[in-house]
Amino acid sequence: MSATLEFVRASRWYGQVIALNDVTTTIGPGVTGLLGPNGAGKSTFLKLASGQLAPSQGEVKMLGRAAWGSPELFHRVGVCPEADAFWEQLTGLEFVTGLLRLTGYDETERRQRAENALHEVALLDAKDRKIGGYSKGMRQRVKMAQALAHDPEVLLLDEPVSGMDPVNRRRMVDLVRRLGRTGRTVVVSSHILHEVEAMTRRVLLIHNGRILAEGDVREIRDLMDEHPHTVALRARDPRALARAVVAMPHVISLTFGAEGEWVTVQTARPDDLYGNLAEAAESAGVSEMYSPDENLESVFRYLVAG
Amino acid sequence: MATRDPERPVPFAPAARGVFDLALEGMVWSGRTVVMAGLLALPVVLAIVYRLVLARYPMVRLSAIELYGWFIVMYYLRFALPLMALFYATALIADEVEGKTLTYLLTRPIRRESILAGKFGAYVVTTLTLALPAVVLAFFTLMTVRGGANLGGAVPDLLRDLGVVALALFAYGAVFTLLGVFLKRPVIPGLLFIFVWELFLPSFPGYIPRVTLTAYLRSLVRHRPAQEGVSEIFAQVLPTALCLEVLVGAVVVGLAASAWIFSTREYVMDQ
Amino acid sequence: MDGMAETPLVEFRDLAVSYGPIEALAGVSGAFLPGPTGLLGPNGAGKTTLLKTLLGFLDPDRGMINAFGLDPTKEPLGVRRRIGYMPEVDCHLPGMTAAAFVAFAGELSGMPRDEAISRAHEVLYYVGLGEARYRTVDTYSTGMKQRVKLAQALVHDPDLLLLDEPTNGLDPAGRDEMLALIRDVSERRQMSLILCSHLLRDVEQVCENVIVFNQGRVAASGRIADLTGPRRAVYDVRVKGDATAFLTDLKDHGCEWREGEDGYRVTMSDGAGPELIFRTAREAGVQVRFLRPGAETLEDVFLRALGHEAES
Amino acid sequence: MPIYEQTYRRHEARGPLRRVRFWPITREALRLILARRAFLILLMFSWLPFVIRVIQIYVITRFPEVSRILPVDGRLFGDFLGWQALFAMFITIFAGAGLVAGDLRTGAILVYLSRPLTRRDYVLGKLAVLLLLNLFITLVPGLVLYLLALGLAPDQFWKWSLAWIGPAVVVDSLVISAVISVIALAISSLSRSARVAGIGFFGLLMGLEITRKTLYAIYGRPETALVSPLGALYSVGVALFDLADRALTLPWLYAAAVIALLSAACLLILRSRVRAVEIVQ
Fold first, then answer.
1. Of A124, A267, A274, C289, whose CB is crowded by the most CB atoms within 10 A?
2. Which DSSP state fits A157?
3. CB of D112 within 8 A of CB of D120?
4. Nearest chain B residue (CA) to A13
5. Domains: count for chain C
6. Are residues C70 and C120 in the same domain?
7. What is the reported pLDDT for C277?
């Protein structure tokens, strides 16, 4: 997996505030999710990658060249900034063609590419309306259009779906997945976990300016499985369920809920518990089962707590 | 257009031209241009009033040519042009930063110098298309008073004045571009520069006027309107060659410094 | 909060409000009873317009609106005194510390200065900004700014809270804490509130009743339980391992599935229970890691009420 | 589930709405602007003419014959306040350009108008900020100068004929401060950017001032002063302190009328621009 984007011991600070602290990682083709709470350093990471900021220490290389100070990279890189900021008096088409002109395309090719990009984000029918009149979802999509209009190999997307309602969010998630499948390198930053999980498996967890965890989401979740889990189950016959569960080797504790329907089990090896729970669950009529330690959010919170 | 070479940024001229068109679009059609047009048209209105009233109220203390000279020196050179330069030039980059739209330009394969060049070009075109017609209109409104006998003779004056107006817009434009790129809040310093530095220092004795642009601009123009009080005594006229040298120098240095600062500065547009 | 008919805090009938040519509200009727109520709809559906009409910022073209028995267009001060408004936009004052800002907001609500200062500290501790209250709000993260906005809405202890997109831009941890805070304000402090949002899970976690807006009209309204009562048994499932075989087996058993917010949303075939899910999982060799009877979520209500592909 | 101490009590006091609702707005805005170093420097410079005038009065008391060249009478105060008007413009723009424009741009106006406050309270609160700042550099130094003159040179000053100077200083300072403040606030409300408001304010006042000078240069009639707000202000000064400035000596009634008209127009602009909801045409 050739490295499209490379961070070598890169740090960045503003005054005394450390935004990115000694980060080393490489990102190749496909979609990579950049995950972290607000202020964790995601935006700084993307600004370093897109050469808008120079690293205070270390090196940031994009397509083999130092990201800062190499404007020619933007022939092959598309950036979708986070801010909801536009030249409001331009129409969607003027906005994209205007920026394509700064990418060196001539008149005809500009118009052609702009219309393709607008079609890609389902904005073709609104191409002649002023961006000032666009809805929040449409503004986010025209921003994507300018990022992918010049068919870049690399796409850096800063919170592309924040503040969007479900209809638009799903459309954007599908678009990112389609882009990832065409072999481009797509880096998507977000603080909404299930969106990133829907777009990709490859995740980079970032917190307080440091890389916390890296790799396939499931790998990270398996890493989770070595730790005790508490699992809550509601069953028609909780006693029968309890009898079956108690026999399992790694169960640490087992308690009954107040109303009697609920059973809470704590196990040292969650994999084992879930593995051979199926028969007991079926016979005892389990209708609800959840564990606070089970979703990506908990992975995140768990790793952040450290 | 040459085919796109992904290994090198887009050449300077076409890139600047692209930024120029984008900037011009935003600059010309904004509400502020209407305000600026009004500011420049004021002397034309006064000229028209002067012509109409002249018939019934002939005892005027300024002849048409003197009034025109007064407009050029007192109104345009010392007030309207610097203010318009401050208005547009400080915002060339500041508007994009404040509006957070600079990112779109910084993430294009173009050198930052071409962004500044494109923006400054748009500034020059916008201000010239507003200022030059106003001066010409004022000129003809006044010069055609009483049969316009001396019109032919005065035309070279007009051409010279138009040249000085353009030079003033370039010079003040370069200075305020630098101010806009260098300071976070350039307006108050800019206003102090126009209404204190450029207003009072040119009338000082000795070498002091040489640190102002007004002294040079005023020396290039042949009009010598009667100024009140102390400034009458010390008004100096500097040699034309020196004035041109200094003004062109100010433009070059101002733009070069702005380009250098703009290229090396990082723009952190926090959320 | 028993069900007996309480007098509503806010009532509006056939309310129409427009911004210049754009008709933001086209004749809506409804009421907000004491307690938490959700105001739901895509961006630009007219939710914020209703809040601003309630605050007396906008004069309606036609129709009636009243709050606490007062007409906001005639007695805006009387209405605003009893309302705490948390706007969607960032509205802190640059250069002010949180403590100074919230105390200032209290004073603007008519509280004497020293009382406003002590209240400000108390409220800032309550929203969890105790230690950071002497820092200027510009240095705050998005989450903390949202909490300062809540604090300035709470400081004069209003009778009705208007919360416009309170979890906007928050990360999961921040969102849960903000919703927990809002639930605490509503349940433990007995403060009625209107939670205006386009995020469905937020409204579900705080409110019992909801009014769904779309393009300036009321699309649906009533108790959330009624709107989302399960017709066919629906379960949210998450499995560990390759789910494709599991899902195709489910289809063979007559169940349908689609990708839900967090996991797969399986609509069971008639008469089938959760055991079918466990059995199919076991046969497909995957572990069921999460199972929850998913009533038709507000999103389904939402899409159905909006006629599916509403362009928003 | 985060645990919150039970300190949060329902606040029962429902005292009557304070009458002076706008004062907190003024106090907080002043506190913020006075925290800015650059502004304090500007304020310091605004007191420079005061220092010069004190020296002038001191010199006259030591060498009485000097008073024949630099007479210590109404003209000293008239000129002094004339200069202070220019400083007032810079002070007002520094503090005032963003006063309303900033709130409109960031939406912070909602913090005010969602409270039991009328738009009148908001405008009064903001206006008081500029008024106090301007009075601080016109009325305060003017009165101190007057008392100083009485104290240092009682023989020349403690005359019934010069008793009118005190009230004249008060009136002139009030007029200058009020007019400049209300114009600046109106212009601040017309734009969403403090930068445009600042340049607009100077463009308008200085532009009309040059127009006045042009018309006077052409027609030589003092009535031309009515074209420019600054002209009207200076005419009031000239009338109050009978300064020798032919271009501005005209019946003070005209100047007062122009000023009243101007202030009314500004208040109307403020009434229409200060609203919680942007009316999108």
1. A274
2. E
3. no
4. B268
5. 2
6. yes
7. 87
Of A167, A192, A301, the CB nearest to C312: A167
Enumerate residue ranges in chain A where pLDDT < 70: 1-2, 38, 163-167, 192-194, 220-224, 226, 258-259, 292-306
Rounded CA separation B48/C100 (Å) = 56
The whole-model pTM stands at 0.80
Query: Which of A207, A254, A200, A202 shows the shortest CA–CA distance to A232?
Result: A254
Residue C294 has what pLDDT? 63
Q: In chain A, where does DSSP find H-type helix?
A: 42-49, 92-101, 107-120, 136-148, 166-181, 193-199, 217-225, 238-246, 270-275, 278-284, 296-305
Tokens read off for C100: 């100074």
Tell me which residues of chain B have a pLDDT lower than 50: 1-2, 271
CB–CB contact A102 B105 (8 Å):
yes
Same-domain check for residues C126 and C257 = no
Shared domain check, C188 and C84: yes
The Cβ-side half-sphere exposure at B96, using a 13 Å CA radius, reads 22
Cβ-contact A59, A8 below 8 angstroms:
yes
Q: Which domain holds residue C280?
A: 234-294
Is residue D12, in this structure, part of any structural domain at all?
A: no
Q: How far apart are CA B78 and CA B76, in angstroms?
A: 6
Residue C1 lies in a domain: no
Q: Per the domain annotation, does C2 fall within a domain? A: no
Interface mutation target, options A46, A91, A102, chain B, most CBs of B under 10 Å: A102
Note the pLDDT of residue A112: 95
pLDDT one-digit tens code per residue, C188-198:
878 899 999 88
Q: Is D8–C126 a contact, with Cβ atoms under 8 angstroms apart? A: yes
Residue C156 placed within a domain: yes
User: Does residue D230 register a pLDDT over 70?
Assistant: yes
Q: D120: Cβ–Cβ under 8 A, 6 or more apart, which residues?
A: none
CB D77 within 8 A of CB D146: yes
User: Chain A residue closest to B118 (CA)?
Assistant: A102
Q: How many angstroms separate the CA atoms of A160 and A141, rounded?
A: 8
Give the nearest chain C residue to D112 (CA atoms).
C108
Helix runs in B99-149, H state only: 102-106, 112-143
pLDDT band at C1 (very low <50, low <70, confident <90, very high): very low
pLDDT band at C311 (very low <50, low <70, confident <90, very high): very low
The number of distinct structural domains making up chain D is 1
For residue C309, what pLDDT is reported?
A: 37
Mean pLDDT of the region C104-132: 90
> What pLDDT is recorded for position C172?
62
Strand order in the sheet with A185-190: A77-80, A154-158, A185-190, A30-35, A202-207, A210-216
Amino acid present at D153 = A
Q: Does A101 touch chain B (CB under 8 A)?
A: yes
Which pLDDT does position B229 carry in this prediction? 52
Across the interface, whether the CB atoms of B108 and A52 are under 8 A apart is answered no
- ipTM for the predicted complex comes to 0.76
Interface size between C and D, measured as CB pairs under 8 A: 110
Question: What number of H helices and E strands is found in chain B?
Answer: 13, 0
Residue of B nearest to A95 (CA): B22
Q: Which of C:262-281 have CB within 8 Å of A?
A: 262, 273-275, 278-279, 281
On whether both C73 and C195 belong to a single domain, the answer is: yes
φ, ψ at C11 (rounded to 5°): -135, 140
Decide if D102 touches C, using CB distance below 8 A: yes
Q: Using CA atoms, how far apart are residues C279 and C262, in angstroms rounded to an integer?
A: 22
| Whole-angstrom distance, CA of residue B141 vs CA of residue B135 | 10
pLDDT recorded at residue B189: 92
The span from the CA of C6 to the CA of C32, in Å, is 10
Identify the domain containing residue D267 by its residue range.
20-273
A246: part of which helix (H) or strand (E)? Answer: helix A238-246
Q: For residue C238, what is the enclosing H or E element?
A: strand C234-240
B28 touches chain A (CB under 8 A): no
Split at pLDDT 50, 70, 90, the class of D270 is: very high
pLDDT of residue C213 exceeding 50, the answer is yes
